[in-house]
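lol so apparently i was supposed to do this last week
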Amino acid sequence: MTPASPPRVRRTLLYMPGDSRRKIEKAAGLDVDSVCLDLEDGVAASQKAAARETVRRALAELDFGGSEVLVRLNPFGSGGEADDLAAAIAGHPDGIVLPKVESIDALRWLDAQVTGAEQGNRWPPGAIGLIAMVETARGIVNLKEICGASSRLQALVFGAEDLAGDIGATRTADAWEVFYARSAVVTHAAAFGLQAIDMVFLDYTDLDGLAREAAVGARLGYSGKQAIHPAQVAPIHSAFTPTATAIAHARRVVDAAQAQQSAGFGAFALDGRMVDAPIVKAAEVVLARARAAGIDA
Ligand code: COA
Ligand code: MG
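anyway here it is w/ magnesium ion bound
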């Protein structure tokens, strides 16, 4: 397998139902990192075939500007996934999102199909990335195998609503009932060099609540968050873009650490607080995220 090209920044991943040409057109005009045309739960069972056709045409006809274009399939084993993939692949999307990934088999199947399509169409190998949604108890338990299943895998997405349903939890605003899984996803993503995209905030009229939940996700280590409405794009975008203050502080820490290392010190004081290797590493992550967001840091 050829290694996938480096992933782009994915702070906001905005879904819209694949059978809504209007919403797809709307999304194409937005300044959003990733647009995801959904063939799964945002589409009624009776509209699946129509949605595939709408997605196929939209990919061929619309200009999504600088946004990454993704298509979400129905899950592996649902019976719809092969037709979904055929419709998506015809439009050469930037990536495929596979929901309810529970085992290595799902990603192996998808990787083989995408590889076959790239070869058949003489497209550059590895250009179509994969994103796995982990949102079931089995998916959480099998995270390690899932993360290593395909060299095309670029990101994990955490699905809190599906997970809560699967484990019998009741969703609450502070999300403690899904905390183990939310933390497991971001930790496995980091272990395998993948991005981690946090849960959906359903109340799209509550932008303060969204900002709070996005800030928690960013503090947990997530690199982005799913969105379901255009109004959610700006708050999420800002929660996952390091602030000027955070960047300036990170730069000071990294510069000071370099000077201290040269002078022979691994641990030192800065503004009355100890700085050593893990603090420097965290500062480097802030700078890397800023650079990924196009900021000169
Ligand atoms: N992507 C692109 N455009 C969207 C959008 C989305 N996810 N959600 C809403 N819009 C558009 C609407 O079309 C509307 O524009 P218009 O008046 O020019 O048609 C505008 O934004 C305002 O929408 P609003 O009236 O506030 O919402 P709505 O009642 O049309 O839709 C939802 C509400 C929840 C049904 C809609 O936001 C939606 O479909 N979200 C995505 C659902 C989905 O994909 N779920 C599966 C993944 S979790
Ligand atoms: Mg889901």
